[in-house]
Amino acid sequence: MENIEPRRKRRRQSLSHHTKRRKLGPNNPHRQNVAQQQALHVDFRSNESMQGPPNHRAEDFEQPRLRKCPFLLDTIKWKSATKLGDGYDGCVWKVKFGNKGTFVLKVFWDTQPPQTRNGYFAPQRECQNAAILQMIEAALEERPVPLRYEHPETQAQAMANMLAFSVPQEEAQQQQAVGSPRAVLSYSPPIRRCYGWLDFDGDLIKHMPYQIKPQPRKRDKPPHSMSPGNTYHAIVYEYISEDDNEPASIKAVLRFFHLIGFSFTCSPRIENWKGGRLIDGSDVVYPGGVGWNVQYYGSPRIAAALLGSDPRLEEREADNNSRIT
What we know:
Radius of gyration: 24 Å
Strand order of the largest sheet: 3-4-5-9-8
Number of domains: 1
Largest sheet: 5 strands, antiparallel
Number of strands: 13
Structural class: alpha+beta
Strand content: 15-25%
Number of helices: 9
């Protein structure tokens, strides 16, 4: 009789046996997506009223939060307001807050950060950008700021240049004594002024004349709309008239954004500029923001796209630019 050995049971390996060997590196899509979702939920608003210059310490730059607008929404006279337009991020009106003058009120469609990969949260981006620009302006009002890099190329270099505006004056002078800075920034080109954030009560839509009510954008993915009963993020800007864009003014702003670490997004449009100033706060990203992209950082193609020029000529001109003082 044939001796048959009983079949040995194969030891089942748990799923964790395989996953333990799989390390999630910094470029792993899953890890990047988790990091992005965390960044999208970082607080970007301060309850402090916008009065006087902001603090500009390192921690303020590392988590920029825009201060609250001191204006009151219920002082807007909607019958005299003008709807300037709408876009993927929100709807924009030309308004007056009582007798304080003319301003731009931008109300964002989205009330929560997106869940999709590579998305951005427009109110967060614009509030963070505005807060950073206000801190840089405050630092430049005090003194010229020596920068680490004259031609920054990486995100780390962009961040180093931005954080230079948080260095106390005495420490900056000591650094200058040790070695000459690569570039010194002593002024800011004209930048559109921001007056802070507001919560927009959707019930205000009931008081708007029909022709200026926010209309649904069904062609957007996902579709966008506003309705009474909801609260939306809003931001208040300086109103800029329809002035011509001088190429020299645009180039000065582009160079300034490059030095302070801001990258552009993938689709810059000259329609988002007036009088040589950028009027769409979502077109740029500060170096710690979601969507900062080295591909669009300091690229001569950005100037070429805005000015309709040859990118090779823009690249040569960028190479010839040396110090900004």
